[in-house]
Amino acid sequence: MILEEEISFGYSAKCVNLLSKVLGIQKKTVRGWGDNPNFEDMPQHARTTCGYIQAALSPEILKRIASSEYVAPRVTANQFINEMLLKGSSHSERLKIVSSTKFRGQYLTLLSETLTISKRTIYEWGRDIELPKMPIYHQHTLAYALAAYRKKQQQSIAA
Fold it and tell me: What is the 3-state secondary structure (H, E, C) of the chain?
């Protein structure tokens, strides 16, 4: 079944279209990654994002995205850190966490592991939690990582 789909007319264009939409990049860029379905030259950040997309979105949702207008979601580093490290904390607990000498290391580690890049690279994006120089494609990755995390949380609550 999969092989039939892969060799069918238009499959390559469908792959390029879907990747372009979910990654928030131009189709021309996706085509430059090589022949599909392998896309040998796909950058690591896009592979990481695809992993989170697969964990966060069902095949049905991906089919709807492929056949409709779609804008890839974005989450800033600050929004991601708030949800992952501070959500559910009272105001005083948040202040205690954020003012801790360990906090910067915690959020750099979380971002580094989530984005699969070095802490040094993240550090170069800015010295505050806003990280103003963070590339937009990493904001897409954080959005899908957050969606995958929320989905996992919902599944564990339901179990």
Answer: CHHHHHHCCCHHHHHHHHHHHHHCCCHHHHHCCCCCCCCCCCCHHHHHHHHHHHHHCCHHHHHHHHCCCCCCCCCCHHHHHHHHHHCCCCHHHHHHHHHCCCHHHHHHHHHHHHHCCCHHHHHCCCCCCCCCCCCHHHHHHHHHHHHHHHHHHHHHHHC
